[in-house]
Design a protein that fits this description.
The protein is mainly alpha-helical. It has 6 helices and 2 strands. A two-stranded antiparallel sheet has the order 1-2. It is elongated and about 60 Å long.
Length: 197
C-alpha cells in the first residue's frame, strides 16, 4: 500500500526518469550550466542581493512563481484532452521510454500525449514547490536569521554559513533553471511538435 501511494504521489517527477539520448541536455546539462552561472553571479556580485526577507530576491519572485502552477495545470489539461489522433502515436524512433507500474515495471515507448503529460506534471510540481518554499523562507525569515546568527558564533561558523548559502543558491538555481528549460521545451512541443504527424 505504501509503495503504491509513494508511486502515485511522486508520479509528477517521472519526467526526470524518461530515457532518451537527447533528454539529458534538457534534464541535466542545460539546468546545471545555468545554475552554475547563476550561483557564480550571485556569490561573486560586488553587492550580493538579499535572498530572503523584505526587498529580497525570493520576495520579488513569489508573484511570478505563484501564477505558474495554474498555467501548467491548464497546459496539462489541454494536452490530456486534445483530440488530435497524432497525439496518441508513439514519438519517432528512438522514442523516449519510461518505466510504468510500481510492481512489475515495464518500459513503454511514449506517445506525444504521454510525454507532454509527464512534462507538464513535472512543471506543476516544481513550480508549486518553489512557490511554497519561497513563501516559507520569507514567513520564517526571522527564525532563519536567528539560527544563522547562532551558527556564526560557533567554530568555523562563517565557513558553515557560506557552504549553506552556496548549496541553497545552487539548489534553487538548479530548480529555477530546470523550470525554465523544461518550460521552453514544453512550448516547443505545444507550438510545433504537437501539429506534426
Amino acid at each position: 500500500m505504501l509503495r503504491n501511494l509513494s508511486y502515485e504521489l511522486s508520479r509528477g517527477l517521472a519526467y526526470r526518469k524518461i530515457q532518451h539520448p537527447e533528454m539529458s541536455r534538457y534534464k541535466t546539462v542545460l539546468p546545471l550550466a545555468l545554475s552554475t552561472l547563476t550561483t557564480l553571479a550571485i556569490t561573486l556580485a560586488p553587492i550580493a542581493p538579499l535572498l530572503i526577507g523584505k526587498d529580497s530576491l525570493s520576495k520579488e519572485l513569489i508573484p511570478l512563481i505563484s501564477i505558474l502552477p495554474g498555467f501548467y495545470f491548464a497546459g496539462l489539461a489541454a494536452v490530456a484532452t486534445f483530440g488530435a489522433e497524432q497525439m496518441d502515436r508513439v514519438l519517432p524512433h528512438p522514442a523516449p521510454t519510461l518505466k510504468i507500474g510500481y510492481i512489475d515495471q515495464e518500459d513503454i515507448q511514449l506517445s506525444k500525449r504521454q510525454f507532454m503529460s509527464y512534462l507538464f506534471s513535472y512543471l506543476v510540481l516544481i513550480s508549486l514547490f518553489l512557490c511554497l518554499s519561497l513563501i516559507f523562507f520569507n514567513v520564517f525569515n526571522g527564525s532563519i536569521l536567528h539560527i544563522l546568527k547562532a551558527i556564526k558564533d560557533i567554530c568555523y561558523g562563517k565557513e558553515i554559513i557560506f557552504v549553506i548559502k552556496l548549496v541553497t543558491i545552487f539548489t534553487y538555481s538548479f530548480l529555477f533553471s530546470s523550470l525554465a528549460v523544461t518550460t521552453l521545451h514544453g512550448i516547443f512541443f505545444l507550438t510545433e511538435k504537437i501539429h506534426q504527424p
